[in-house]
Amino acid sequence: MNExxxxxxxxTQSKSIQNPESKVQNDAIxxxxxxxxxxxxxxxxxxxxxxxxxxxxxxxxASIVGSSGAGKSTLLHLLGLLDTPTEGDIxxxxxxxxxxxxxxxxRVRNREFGFVFQSFxxxxxxxxxxxxxxxxxxxxxxxxWMREAGKLKERAESLLTRVGLGERMxxxxxxxxxxxxxxxxxxxxxxxxxxxxxxxxxxGNLDSKTADEIFALIEQxxxxxxxxxxxxxxxxxxxxxxxxxxxxxxxxFVPAD
Length: 257
Known about the structure:
Helix content is 35%, strand content 26%. By secondary structure, it is α/β, with parallel strands linked by helices. Helix 4 runs parallel beside helix 5.
């Protein structure tokens, strides 16, 4: 199966919608159909995701809220090609990317997707700037890195400045607060100029004030750069700030209470 090509495009902010199949002015950038994920535990099959249909629209911020075990993180990992579904298909810009080979999937993740996780996943021995640059360095390869290192470094420095860390670029993660580490993670997710950013409990380790500040940065990058964000969270307050707010329970989308 061929890797998606010529996939980069600027996006505009979409209208707020209320359920997975509502129509908006923009096209779906990412879609899944009948997506399921089972896990085997001894002789027991755990149905974590149950035939889910979902569309993520270009230029929107969508949130999925649910309790632990609802299936929301599993869905995010499948859509981001971090895991493989048991059944169903995933489409990115109309192309089926469900069963790409490992190298092709890695290229899509590196070039088209960005990721922000609850635990930050920063490399402890690297500075904030070096952490932000890591996806660019991996994606570029040695020859391209030699040609474009200066430009990529400028981009990383600009992102760190935009998230308020212009004076802390040389700090390693242990010298940064939790909120500062998540700002680094957000800048890292954006350094390769992805179309879609997946956020898995991005405020889970933060106090409410810092969580609001991180979400404000997400809104800023959505508004100013047209980035599409999919956020999964158990925090109803954060989820309701998204333009579209969905609920999951027992591996399915359910109506809001």
